[in-house]
Every structure is written in structure tokens, then in C-alpha cells.
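One such given next:

>
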Amino acid sequence: METYGPENFILSADVMDDNVMINGWLEATSLRLVDLADQFEKKGLEYICCTDIRTDGTLQGPNLSLYRKLKKRFPKLKVIASGGISSLNDLNELKYIKVDGAIIGKAIYENRIKLSELKNF
């Protein structure tokens, strides 16, 4: 980040129960997401993408409490939500808690959200 600038990096973490998961979600670590974010924010990090693996691909809605916690603890970080997004209502809820972006996959593939509907976001 020192060489290329923090605006050119997105820290992406897969999490379960607030802990970072590795090796294709198969292995838990003792590293908490907030500790990882704190470590990188101190170095100038601006963006973090967080996937709650319990919700990813489920179309059951995103883990709003996780993203609220991130936004409260790191108000300067731009947070990108990932996992569970199933509808425009989910996107509106994320927008309400001031999440800065979202990754939408299965909801688009299954036509629950149409690309044309995303123009307003």
C-alpha cells in the first residue's frame, strides 16, 4: 500500500462467527475480522470486502449485524458486503446502514434481481 497507494487495494476477508476463514472456507483461524481490519487501517486501508460464508449463496439475506459492526468500528473504511443478498430490499437495508457497496451473485443468476433494477443504486 505504501508503494501503490491504499486506494488501489481492497482487503477481502471470508468470515464465520467474526473469525477469518482460509483455504476455501475450510479452515478457521484465530484472527478476528476486526483485528485484521484494524491492522490494515493503521497502514492506510480504505476498502474492505467482507463475505459472511454462512450466508453466501443462500439468498437468505446479508448479515446486517456484521456490516453494522464494521461501519461502527471503522467509520472511515468503505465496506463492501458479500453473501446472502437476495433482493432489492436487502440492498436497501445495506444502503440504510451506509454500506458502500455489495457483491451480488446468485440473486442475479436466478433473476431475483435484474441488472436493469440496479441502475438506481
